[in-house]
């Protein structure tokens, strides 16, 4: 791909991504069992309007949309970082076990320690963080490699999934509230959920700015990065921990939503290249827009049933990812 074509695509992507984000917000706020016009939504948000739809927007749709935005942004950022660190387009928080670690900690909290449910985001982060450390040291042998990390992550992911299923079998009388969460969804998300996930998500997203330079250098390969004076192992560890924070924040509020961290960064990379100065911000905006669009579709197109957004994303994400792989040679 020539520099001119890539530069034009990057410009288009940087303009299109914020527009898609705004459209997803308007779509999520406007549509549902009660359609509401954009003019009325604007008045409700910006004034002390006593509209009949005030409760629907302020207490139901707006917090749900904001949780969806942060969830998608965190998952896409985590996937982009992991794919760069491991130089593997199949790396994402769900595949290498980071999300499973956060999920297991969240399940333990919800099933065994329901009185500590207010600590769910912290528990999810600790679970994701601990899983990342375990994977990192399992793959360590006088250094690590992306292949070793992925293989260790797949094995740990399977183990954590088995433990999670075991807990649900043993405590089958307590899992009704956990099952929708395992499918991944935003049903019932409120200002409470936003308030406990937002600090973790915003800190993690803010730290992605510092991840741009080391992620770009790691793309050169370990030997080249070391020649440039980089502490490769330390940078890889810190970036993996950052992805754990992002994945833990998303898991704590929305459950086990898959494919966002895999498909979005991969699609963006195919279009605009691997430079993290452009890849990270476009992936963050694209992931946020995708989750809100998908959640709105899941709760409106299948009325009166509300389909968990995680199921919809899995059904759409897998075929789309295969399509991207088929078209990759044409986009280079």
UniProtKB/TrEMBL annotation:
Keywords: Cell membrane, Membrane, Transmembrane, Transmembrane helix, Transport. It is a multi-pass membrane protein. The keyword Transmembrane applies. Its main location: membrane. It is found in: Cell membrane. It holds the Pfam family FecCD. The chain crosses the membrane at residues 12-29, 65-82, 94-113, 119-138, 150-171, 237-264, 276-298, 305-325. InterPro entries: ABC_BtuC-like, ABC_transptr_permease_BtuC. One of its GO terms (molecular function) is transmembrane transporter activity. Coiled coil: none annotated. The keyword Ribosomal protein does not apply. GO terms for cellular component: plasma membrane. GO terms for biological process: siderophore-iron import into cell. Belongs to the binding-protein-dependent transport system permease family. FecCD subfamily. This is Iron complex transport system permease protein. It comes from Paenibacillus endophyticus.
